[in-house]
Design a protein that fits this description.
Length: 372
């Protein structure tokens, strides 16, 4: 992992995986580790729990990168760390404001259909994460951008979002709905469109239909081909300067999802750098199996003495059983994908809630001491 973070040709690291596997913590720890290696890093999180702000000692995060104050021992010369929380509606608004004259931008921003689309349309959050990534790369203030992707059950949600949103905004239905708002539309398309919009007006309401027509008329004039923007965003993910990390935990469902992510990234020719296995478990006596521990426990209990030793052996047996089950899951994943490097992060007794804990996670990822 340190080799990846030290490689200056790598400009973007994308942490992906299913929900609850520690993507946010991983992204933050990688950002802190990168600063310790001398990189100027910024972390984009889309996690609504806002754990990133708390762990970095920030009172809040918003759509603008904020500097993270790091102790001198946590950062190398030239290194720095910023963090931001993606506001998908604000990012969408920024795109409108950047590409429209003030009057047209105000019309779009005030449109009820746009307000609903920008706040809740499926895929908007994922797409705006990539838009924000593009903005930060163009600004050039950071040489490494780390993206914490939205929690999802499938890689399809993240990888397909740009195309899905672009296809929707350029889709035939939207253009048919907008037809009456365009000059001469009825003469060009005939009475069939009028009949369709009449039916839709009764179904969704005349005002809603009017809002859609007004939105598309203004929006189309500003963007033209939204699909082209979506395709450019998708190509950015395939750029050699991008590295994907699949994050998982050693549980059956999470490992199954991780395997799917790996396969989907390969199918789409996305640059997969490796897999992070969070919250792994071990034991203090690695050579003592669960069976041996339980046998010794039974012998002690049969003798009627050493209750504390017997209890300790029973606890060890449970820990060893968990360790062995996790090892079996990791072996199956490694067998199916032998060329994917894996970094393991041991389970912690406490949640990651400050910079010191993030530093320890980064050290586990990098395979070296916290101070690098």
């Amino acid at each position: 992992m340190d080799a990846l973070l030290s490689d200056t040709t790598v400009r973007t690291v994308v942490c992906c995986g299913s929900g609850g596997v520690g993507k946010t913590t991983t992204a933050a720890a990688l950002g802190l580790r990168a600063a310790a290696l001398g990189r100027q890093a910024v972390v984009i999180t889309v996690d609504p729990a806002r754990r990133l702000a708390q762990s970095m000692g920030l009172s809040e995060l918003d759509n603008t990168p904020r500097p993270v104050e790091l102790p001198a021992s946590f950062v190398s010369p030239g290194g720095s760390l910023h963090a931001m929380m993606l506001d998908m509606k604000r990012t969408f608004d920024e795109i409108v404001e950047a590409h429209a004259d003030p009057e047209r931008a105000q019309q779009i921003l005030a449109n009820p259909f746009y307000q609903s689309l920008s706040a809740s349309f499926t895929g908007t959050q994922e797409y705006m994460a990539m838009e924000k990534l593009g903005q930060l790369r163009e600004e050039g203030d950071w040489d490494l951008i780390i993206v914490d992707t939205p929690p999802s059950r499938s890689a399809l949600d993240f990888l397909d979002a740009p195309e899905r949103l672009g296809r929707f905004l350029d889709g035939k239905l939207i253009r048919v709905l907008a037809a009456p708002a365009r000059t001469g539309a009825f003469r060009l398309l005939g009475a069939g469109v009028g009949m369709l919009t009449g039916v839709l007006s009764k179904v969704v309401g005349a005002q809603v239909l009017a809002d859609v027509q007004s939105f598309v008329s203004s929006f189309d004039a500003v963007f033209g081909g939204f699909q082209e923007r979506a395709e450019r965003t998708y190509r950015r993910l395939q750029d050699p300067g991008t590295a994907f990390l699949v994050v998982a935990v050693p549980e059956s469902d999470a490992v199954r999802e991780a395997a799917f992510f790996v396969e989907r990234l390969a199918a789409d020719r996305m640059p997969l750098a490796g897999l992070v296995m969070n919250r792994t478990h071990g034991t203090e006596a690695e050579d003592l199996s669960a069976g041996e521990s339980m046998a010794a426990c039974a012998e002690l209990e049969g003798q009627g003495g050493h209750p504390l030793a017997a209890a300790a052996l029973r606890l060890h047996a449970r820990a060893a059983d968990l360790r062995d089950r996790e090892a079996g899951l990791r072996r199956r994943l490694a067998s199916a994908h032998p060329d994917v490097p894996v970094a393991e992060v041991p389970a912690r007794t406490r949640d990651v809630h400050d910079l010191a804990a993030l530093r320890e996670v980064g050290a586990a990822l990098g395979g070296g001491p916290p101070g690098v």
